[in-house]
């Protein structure tokens, strides 16, 4: 319950794509955070089971998520229609198939696929809105030295791939990923492995790197759908967001189903292009 602003922390800017120093710090901290779950599963399984039983996912399993499914499909179809039917067939068919099964994909993620021997406590909304940074090096004032994750209402137990997909594909752009995606995954895994070793556990046993890569492929549709939805919210001007408490569901859906800008279209098309390049089936 500390006031982190009084300690020199400031909230990240969710309206701009993240740069490498910020992304690096986030990925390293996510690695440490997930390592704590893996160490508990290994050394204190009863404690982890208690946390898992009392950290049930509360949004994707609620009626409140139904309008979001509609918005994802509406926005996805806007992106789909932006492609040239002949020149862009490589992207059109996979996206069309994916949008036809959005509901089924999320239904599957609500069930046992979210759990298993590699599941960890996820933050659940790992984006710049919910990360505070401290800049403690006067020689490099724009480079963050510490961070604090806030807003834990969507915390749940799932594959670590969920937090990774959410952060990277909501908060970075295609050009950035072309330079840094593989490196950031390695930095995440190295950070996780180091803390696990310090805690007395073995990362290669608890979460092999190739399993993490497989989970990123397996849960890629989640990453795409979240990017379609959250990026549209983040790129809208505040004045263009309806009053969520005093507007009807139809009004909210209609307002939030409009692509905010050409930059949004470029961003989501970049995610789709990268998924195809990475071999992620969505």
Automatic annotation (TrEMBL):
Q: Where is the CHK kinase-like domain?
A: 1-198
Coiled-coil features, chain-numbered ranges:
none
Kindly give the InterPro entries that the UniProt entry links to this protein: CHK_kinase-like, EcKL, Kinase-like_dom_sf
Question: What is the protein name stated in its UniProt record?
Answer: CHK kinase-like domain-containing protein
Species assigned in the record: Photinus pyralis (Common eastern firefly)
């Amino acid at each position: 319950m500390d006031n982190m602003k009084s300690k020199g922390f400031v909230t990240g800017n969710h309206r701009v794509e993240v740069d490498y120093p910020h992304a690096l710090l986030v990925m390293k901290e996510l690695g440490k955070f997930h390592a704590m779950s893996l160490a508990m599963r290994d050394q204190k399984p009863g404690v982890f089971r208690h946390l898992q039983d009392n950290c049930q996912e509360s949004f994707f399993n609620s009626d409140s998520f139904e309008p979001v499914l509609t918005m994802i499909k509406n926005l996805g179809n806007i992106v789909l229609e932006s492609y040239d039917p002949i020149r862009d067939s490589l992207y059109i068919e996979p996206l069309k198939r994916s949008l036809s099964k959005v509901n089924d994909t999320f239904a599957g993620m609500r069930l046992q696929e979210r759990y298993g021997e590699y599941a960890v406590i996820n933050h659940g909304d790992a984006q710049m809105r919910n990360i505070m940074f401290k800049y403690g090096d006067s020689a490099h004032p724009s480079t963050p030295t510490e961070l604090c994750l806030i807003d834990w209402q969507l915390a749940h137990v799932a594959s670590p791939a969920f937090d990774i997909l959410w952060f990277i594909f909501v908060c970075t752009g295609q050009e950035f990923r072309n330079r840094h995606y593989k490196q950031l995954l390695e930095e995440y895994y190295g950070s996780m492995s180091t803390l696990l070793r310090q805690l007395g556990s073995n990362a290669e046993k608890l979460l092999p790197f190739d399993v993490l890569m497989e989970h990123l492929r397996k849960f890629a549709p989640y990453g795409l759908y979240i990017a379609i939805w959250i990026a549209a919210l983040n790129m809208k001007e505040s004045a263009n967001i309806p009053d969520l408490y005093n507007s009807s569901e139809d009004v909210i859906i209609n307002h939030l189903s409009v692509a905010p800008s050409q930059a949004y279209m470029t961003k989501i098309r970049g995610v789709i292009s990268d998924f195809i390049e990475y071999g992620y089936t969505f």
